[in-house]
């Protein structure tokens, strides 16, 4: 009597056991729909979160590759992800200006929102129109990104179940090691520039944290503001051209997506002859391009800054 059903029951029991394990581990049963849902605003933090959680959660990154973190918005579907997420990880400190209303809306529906920036000892802008406000571009300092991993791991521990956290702790530990190596590599690369040439001119104030950590100085910016949403006046461009001449700056650094526009502005309006070097300052690229992950992005930027300020051709 039990012969037929028993033969079929064995695999079902095995599947149920697997499901129970999965339920304990990730509150799901193998279906991606049932894994915890984590929404990350920027693609830089998206890479970090993905490195930590692996397949223990569904990660939705809102900011597209090669986008501007100050201005990107979300689709209706993505707004829906935000409202039903188990956790939203945001950069904060005013970076995601285009998402402010969506983040407020998610909070009003009791979705937990972690704004990483406020936990990593933020710096204030010391000049320009954003002077005195907190600078959100903390990822340009790999040391602060290690702190960010600690902050995100701690918050995941509060929101996810213990089985998943055992695996996430291992991933976090391993990724932290990679970031420590990155920090040493960037320090070594940037130390190749003599102290009197460590002067950065950028398209907006984006490298304050890098300058602070590695003993560089931000002497000017085409958009003298902490956001790309501001626009330079003619007086700002005059000031910039004077700054470039006074400091004998050989190269200025712009975001790769805005290089041509900036070069044109300088050539037409400021009359400055200076090399314009593209960096991946605010966004990852597509995965198959140069800066598809945070570590590659930082390595390339450090190499191009060092080459640009020592008068070598920028590396590709
Ligand atoms: Zn920015």
Automatic annotation (TrEMBL):
What's the domain of life for this entry? Bacteria
**Keyword set, alphabetical order:** Coiled coil, Metal-binding, Signal, Transport
Q: Which residues form the signal peptide?
A: 1-27
* Regions annotated as coiled coil: 165-192
Answer whether the UniProt record assigns the keyword Coiled coil to this protein: yes
Entry's Gene Ontology cellular component terms? cell envelope
The similarity comment for this entry is: Belongs to the bacterial solute-binding protein 9 family.
Q: What is this protein called?
A: Zinc ABC transporter substrate-binding protein
Question: Which source organism does the UniProt entry give?
Answer: Kocuria coralli
């Amino acid at each position: 009597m039990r012969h037929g059903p028993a033969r079929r029951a064995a695999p079902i029991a095995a599947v149920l056991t697997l499901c129970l394990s999965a339920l304990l581990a990730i509150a799901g049963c193998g279906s991606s729909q049932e894994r915890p849902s984590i929404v990350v605003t920027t693609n830089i933090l998206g890479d970090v979160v993905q490195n930590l959680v692996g397949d223990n959660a569904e990660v939705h990154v809102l900011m597209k590759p090669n986008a501007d973190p100050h201005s990107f918005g979300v689709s209706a579907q993505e707004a829906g992800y935000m409202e039903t997420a188990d956790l939203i990880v945001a950069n904060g400190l005013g970076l995601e200006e285009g998402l402010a209303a969506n983040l407020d809306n998610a909070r009003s529906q009791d979705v937990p929102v972690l704004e990483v920036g406020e936990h990593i000892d933020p710096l204030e802008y010391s000049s320009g129109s954003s002077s005195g406000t907190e600078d959100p571009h903390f990822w340009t300092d790999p040391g602060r990104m290690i702190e960010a991993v600690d902050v995100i791991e701690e918050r995941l521990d509060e929101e996810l179940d213990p089985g998943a956290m055992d695996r996430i702790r291992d991933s976090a530990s391993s990724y932290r090691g990679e970031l420590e190596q990155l920090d040493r590599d960037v320090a070594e690369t940037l130390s190749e520039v003599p102290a009197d040439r460590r002067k950065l001119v950028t398209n907006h104030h984006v490298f304050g944290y890098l300058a602070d950590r590695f003993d560089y100085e931000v002497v000017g910016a085409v958009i003298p503001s902490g956001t790309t949403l501001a626009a330079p006046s003619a007086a700002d461009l005059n000031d910039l051209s004077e700054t470039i001449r006074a400091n004998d700056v050989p190269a200025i650094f712009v975001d790769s997506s805005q290089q041509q526009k900036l070069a044109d502005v300088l050539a037409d309006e400021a009359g400055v002859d200076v090399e314009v070097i593209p960096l991946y300052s605010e966004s990852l690229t597509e995965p198959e391009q140069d800066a598809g992950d945070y570590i590659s992005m930082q390595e390339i930027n450090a190499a191009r800054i060092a080459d640009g300020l020592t008068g070598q051709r920028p590396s590709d």
